[in-house]
Amino acid sequence: MKLSALAASSAVLFALAAPVAAEPQAEVLHWWTSGGEAKAVGVLQEEFSANGGTWTDMPVAGGGGDAAMTALRARVLSGNAPAAVQLKGPAIQEWYEEGVLADISSVAEAEGWADVLPASIAEHMKCEGHWCAAPVNVHRVDWIWANAEVLAANGIEMPTTWDEFNAAADKLKEAGVIPLAHGGQAWQDATVFEVVALGLLGPDGFKKAFVDLDADTLNSPEMVAVFDQMRKMRGYVDENFPGRDWNLATAMVMNGEAAFQIMGDWAKGEFLAAGKVPGEDFLCESAPGDGYLYNVDSFAMFEVDGDDKKAGQELLAKLIVGPNFQKVFNLNKGSIPARTDVALDEFDSCAKKSSEAMAAASENGALLPSYAHGMALRGAQAGAITDVVTAHFNSDMSSEDAVKMLAEAVANSM
Ligand code: BGC
Q1: Which atom of ligand 1 is nearest to the CA of 269?
Q2: What are the pocket residues of ligand 1 if the criterion is a CB atom closer than 6 Å to any ligand atom?
Q3: Quick check: pTM over 0.70?
Q4: Which helix (H) or strand (E) holds 8?
Q5: Could you give the count of Cα atoms lying within 13 Å of 381 in the half-sphere of its Cβ?
Q6: pLDDT in tens, 101-136
Q7: Alpha helices of 51-185 — where are they, by DSSP H?
Q8: Whose CA is nearest to atom 12 of ligand 1?
Q9: What's the rounded Cα separation, in Å, for the pair 20 and 92?
Q10: Which of 218, 279, 330, 396 has the most CB atoms around its CB within 10 Å?
Q11: Atom of ligand 1 minimally distant from the CA of 296
Q12: In a 3-state reduction of DSSP, which class is residue 333?
């Protein structure tokens, strides 16, 4: 046989013997169900499909993800974990310790994640030295959102101190406007609480209290002042607040029923999805005080059987950290890219502010993980704090009693 014929026939043989590439599949559990969130997750779904993947959606409604985490536990316990799960903070390591997370280091290394992610974010994505989650974004939590027209009509500027916030809220209340749009759900109470705490305790105090769980800081006069401010906040919300979803609270700011909302920048995703323009229809300002509370959304891959599912996990992980997805997703989600090499030209002024503030906070040790969004503490400790915050917000408990309860609850959770 001539050499060229031999080469051709062996190529045919090789092609016949080569395994058929598995078609990537992924069942994806997430809690992105509001208008802005659904648009953002749609970007991932489209990109996955465009790259040959088949996506099975498993949305579990409920801001902050509590319901999604309950659903996840049930699925894992029944031995049928979804392939990819929206998971973040120390919960990633907690699941890894249960032996159910896949190692995605091969994707991370091939894609050079270590070169494009800030070290502080990369740390959250690792489990005992392996990459075990893929980051999507950086959400800032300590924001105040406002209806521009309502503030102008009442002669109010964006507050730069909590005293100014209180003065503005009192004035608005008098004028018949709901000062603070809020939904009475534990995670929303915790969100407002941690933003007030960062403002009043400062970055060092916040870190001592909610990262280090320092008993003296938890049990301090400064913490009493935080609960005093929470009592004021309670007076600024309307009567229908119990149980309200966060995006309905954002809608109250949009339609001028309420002036302010304290919420992470997923709220901006809602404003944008409704066609509202930052700086014109709505205003964004960091909440009074120093520091930056970050909340990084990420996906962890659970151990699954089947080449198609494993291929799906690899494709998803690769796309999630890819530069195109990081840009388009975050333009919709309200957050900023986790990657440091994505240009922000197409992003709005709030996103640019967030990026600059994050860099500055990182320089001066004021970049802090959000406790309310599961970035700072393990579930038991975060839950113990939130129970006290909610119990205080929904009763006439004194600030002194709340602080005592807080210190005790944290001690008992350890
Ligand atoms: C998540 C966001 C989400 C928000 C409201 C936060 O904990 O990090 O991605 O939009 O909850 O559901």
Answers
A1: 10
A2: 31, 37, 63-65, 139, 266, 295, 297, 373
A3: yes
A4: helix 3-17
A5: 19
A6: 999 999 999 999 999 999 999 999 999 999 999 999
A7: 66-77, 90-97, 105-110, 113-116, 119-124, 148-153, 162-174
A8: 63
A9: 33
A10: 330
A11: 8
A12: helix
